[in-house]
Amino acid sequence: MATIPSHNFHLRLPHMINQRTQYSLSLKPHFSHSTLITFPTRASPARAMSTTDEEASISTRLEPESYGLTTAEDIRRRDREAKESKRLRDTWRKIQGEDDWAGLMDPMDPVLRSELIRYGEMAQACYDAFDFDPFSRYCGSCRFTRRHLFDSLGIIDSGYEVARYLYATSNINLPNFFSKSRWSKVWSKNANWIGYVAVSDDDEATRCRLGRRDIAIAWRGTVTRLEWIADLKDFLKPVSGNGFRCPDPAVKAESGFLDLYTDKDTCCNFSKFSAREQVLTEVKRLVERYGDEEGEELSITVTGHSLGGALAVLSAYDVAEMGLNRTRKGKVIPVTAFTYGGPRVGNIRFKERIEELGVKVLRVVNEHDVVAKSPGLFLNERAPQALMKLAGGLPWCYSHVGEMLPLDHQKSPFLKPTVDLSTAHNLEALLHLLDGYHGKGQRFVLSSGRDPALVNKASDFLKDHFMVPPYWRQDANKGMVRNTDGRWIQPDRIRADDHHAPDILQLLTQLHHPSQLL
């Protein structure tokens, strides 16, 4: 972990950025209300690390005199990234699940690994940007404006622009998921920021790297608190009852997930439209804008961790069920959900309907994570088929969807082998495991040099002899800044353009009338 002098600098870099060449460039003062006191770099060191490198890996430090220098390892890594970018450009449909990732997970395809980490970091951004502090009047909101989200998090050259923020009403029975301020004067009493919709930009390098334009939807989940599982009603109900345009009443999903996705509070500026209405209208707008451009390929990718993984599956299904992945000219846009530590969402008929619509789902899980085994601990896809047929109509008979990539934190030489329910559910730990996974039975070797210290950002999961403090991520001065009078205050944060789109009502009218759809 880099040592920071007396200035407040932001050092968090995405895994795909060349660490040594970008390190010195990213030493820039950050917004005073959001600067972090310390931040390990994402790629330190830049070489692959194996079991024999365990002691040396995290103890390696960037020396000041090395800043800005290009090493042979840097050149090799850049060459590897260039080759992976070319492969992604040529094979992005397979990476998005065109063939259900056949032959890509064992052995692990390096391009798929890189993309899984990239979309996982998009989900992680929802945690890093969320205000969890109950003593902040903005608790439950995003700490940054949408136009500066990635830059504020130190995600340099992401290639994406945030098109819309997503909010949900807290007036539902998931109290352990929502965060609220202790103060009486707050930004909103009934809403929480829950994610964002982004679209890859017009930069030629981005389009060349991705091979298409990508609409990305990221949902916030839960960091380590697992109490929200107990809040679930564990009760399936037809999705058509919550406004989904589904022709089959046998298609059911967990009622708590449906409520979170579809409920709204008409008296609240942020949640007067449901999360569902917000995401569908924004996808509709972006597909109308880019879907039929000459020579333009388009994809829709949804990502989320934990409860956010459930929302990712629901919204991916919803986009396809509504036909929003079809352009005016009839072109079908692939819809993919990458989820991390996500729970089961619906019943067998829900799974079958997702497959009928062509939605692809890849679930990355820690084998020791209880969330990925919930709900439906007893009646699920692993039960005998005859039993599932008999119990198929019961309101607590669940089935996972899509393909699964199982990982085991006990295979990593960096992590404590103990099975702790909260740490086994940690997203940064999953991204660390992805970086070291090469296939079943193969040795754990970090591929991109992604900094293992990130695991302890919001957990105590790294082995103690690496001497990385647990829960090290914190805001400078708890977000307080000095105003022009020299007084310490919490600066204003919410901006008008972070509210709902001005034409959302018009888009909703079109959604409710199929004749006006794409």
Automatic annotation (TrEMBL):
Any keyword Cytoplasm? no
- Per the record, the domain of life is Eukaryota
Q: Where is the Fungal lipase-type domain?
A: 217-377
Q: Name one GO cellular component term.
A: chloroplast
Q: Extract one GO molecular function annotation from the record.
A: triacylglycerol lipase activity
Query: Where is this protein localized, as stated in its record?
Result: Plastid, Chloroplast
Q: Which protein is depicted?
A: Lipase class 3 family protein
Q: Which residues form the signal peptide?
A: none
Similarity comment text for this entry: Belongs to the AB hydrolase superfamily. Lipase family.
Alphabetically list the UniProt keywords.
Chloroplast, Hydrolase, Lipid degradation, Lipid metabolism, Plastid, Transit peptide
- One GO term of the biological process aspect: lipid catabolic process
Q: Which InterPro entries match?
A: AB_hydrolase_fold, Fungal_lipase-type
- Which PANTHER family does the annotation name? PHOSPHOLIPASE A1-IBETA2, CHLOROPLASTIC, PHOSPHOLIPASE A1-IGAMMA1, CHLOROPLASTIC
Lineage here is: Eukaryota, Viridiplantae, Streptophyta, Embryophyta, Tracheophyta
